[in-house]
Amino acid sequence: MNPVIPKSTFEFLSKLNQNNEREWFNENKAWYEQEHAAVIVFADAMLSSMQAHDQLQTESGKKSLMRIYRDTRFSKDKTPYKPRFAGSFSRVKPQLRGGYFFSFKPGETVVGGGFYGPNSDDLKLLRNQIAQDDEPLRKVLNDKAFKSMFGVLKGNQVKTAPKGFDKEHEAIDLLRYKSMYVFREFKDQEVLKESFFDETIKTFLALRPFFDVMTEYLTTDLNGRSIID
Q1: Is the four-CA dihedral 150, 152, 153, 155 of positive or negative sign?
Q2: CATH, residue 12
Q3: Who is most buried in 8, 55, 101, 161, counting CB within 10 A?
């Protein structure tokens, strides 16, 4: 039997969203721990299933989860908690690139992955590779099944053109990206079904063509020679 996201998990997150303050959270800490434990079970099962299909370095479902506590030091939003349970699975680097991501939140659940904050060297190489040959990436992004599941490419972008690239470059729409990822959105009623677990795995597996192209870009030079040991 597949693990499920309990209805009570979304009830807790909805209440937290309405009462996003430390006093309420502390009064309901036991409820939080209960729902957190349920999500850990779900994340452990996702990780175990994906390990049969990919090489992942994330050690456990618990370690995959992000903190619910918000860092408010440099944010205009001073609410202390993020009313969602989210996490990620990292692939073994440097041979494999990309990461899987999930966020369970009432009205805003997404499952997907990509490249959230490539370092400057990776971003430079990625842009050079795309500038030289963007066709492999476009083929994935324009695939009918891929677009049906994920929609359009997401990520932060520069406004005009990155340094060193002509704003009229034929691939400027891709070169502008500073991060690249895709999400599949789920309705609450879909998340709370037993079939949701299978759908998360199906979604993760659908990312592989995207990851394969990006891994090729990031592990070879412009002549196609490997740059990793």
Answers
A1: negative
A2: 3.30.930
A3: 101
